[in-house]
Design goal:
Length: about 325
């Protein structure tokens, strides 16, 4: 009885001390309040609409008034023969972005770090600014540039092809075989500089005494990169990779939607574009929400599993 009383009293003291600490830092929590409200309004409140994945939505009955239908829409999605090609397209594009594009920001950050001489530091700042700039352009602008470059007859690529004897009339965006290359190159061009910021900051945090010790032992710059820089970046790589897995079934809606044409639809139709087509254009809200819920659940499971594996293998995890 005394132990129970002491535990309750300790909990009360702990709660009181927590409230006191929060009150002493009230201005910091006040600054945090807009961020909390933003996520609550735009991320958590809309989750109430997930109920429609197991209910029949009707405009006259509203969000909560429809009939319960259980797993009808989940069965419909997995029973549709088109769903498998859509899932495969999504996974392939996600693989291109998450795996094939993953090393490029790391390589760029290492290249920037190697520009150490004083006379080249201004050049490094200029190059970093140039590579960061595309991130601040919307995908509408970027895809507009892509369309101009790849336009048949008048585009830059076709003009170069004419110079070397080609016909210069290739419709790149209408042919499925070019689609993944266009997705990969435009994604790299837009985000490689921005993504390299985190890796460059991580490199700056490496103890320089390690490099000096390695140089004294006879290690050249290449060996220092292989045995010091890259291993030091592994925790950062793991964290960013885990965060990216949450969107593995999204594949970048803006970019894909703007690049999608009737000619490349067989490889460009992904889950997000399918959701927009069925939900917004066809008004099948419950079915679209069910598909979106599947996306979220798979992303959550992947993050939890890979986070656990990373904790065991690399001793690094999100939580």
């Amino acid at each position: 009885m005394l132990n129970l009383f002491s535990k309750k009293s300790n909990q009360g003291v702990h709660q009181a001390s927590l409230l006191q600490r929060m009150w002493s830092h009230k201005m910091l929590y006040l600054m945090l309040l807009p961020c909390i409200l933003f996520f609550f309004i735009f991320n958590y409140l809309p989750m109430s609409g997930l109920i429609l994945s197991v209910k029949e939505f009707r405009f006259d009955k509203g969000l909560w008034g429809g009939d319960w239908i259980g797993l009808k829409y989940f069965k419909r999605f997995f029973g549709d023969s088109r769903s498998y090609s859509i899932i495969i397209n999504t996974l392939v594009i996600s693989f291109v972005k998450l795996v094939l594009a993953f090393p490029f920001p790391v390589i760029l950050a290492i290249m920037f770090n190697e520009i150490n001489q004083t006379r080249f530091k201004r050049l490094r700042g200029f190059l970093q600014g140039i590579t960061y700039l595309p991130h601040f352009l919307s995908w509408v602008v970027v895809i507009g540039v892509v369309h101009s470059i790849l336009a048949p007859n008048t585009g830059l690529i076709n003009e170069i092809a004419k110079t070397f004897g080609g016909d210069g009339s290739t419709h790149f965006l209408m042919e499925p075989k070019y689609f993944l290359s266009i997705v990969f190159s435009s994604y790299i061009w837009k985000d490689i500089g921005w993504n390299s910021i985190i890796y460059f900051a991580a490199i700056m945090g490496i103890n320089q005494d390690i490099y000096e010790s390695a140089a004294i032992d006879g290690a050249n710059r290449v060996r220092q990169i292989i045995y010091i820089t890259i291993p030091s970046l592994v925790p950062t790589m793991v964290i960013l990779f885990i965060l990216s897995l949450g969107d593995v079934l999204k594949a970048g809606f803006d970019q894909i939607y703007l690049l999608k044409t009737p000619g490349n639809a067989s490889v460009s139709e992904i889950i997000d574009t399918y959701v927009i087509r069925t939900g917004i254009q066809q008004g099948d809200f419950s079915y679209a929400i069910a598909i979106g819920l599947i996306q979220g659940l798979i992303g959550l499971i992947l993050v939890l599993v890979v986070n656990k594996l990373a904790s065991r293998k690399f001793d690094t995890s999100l939580f």
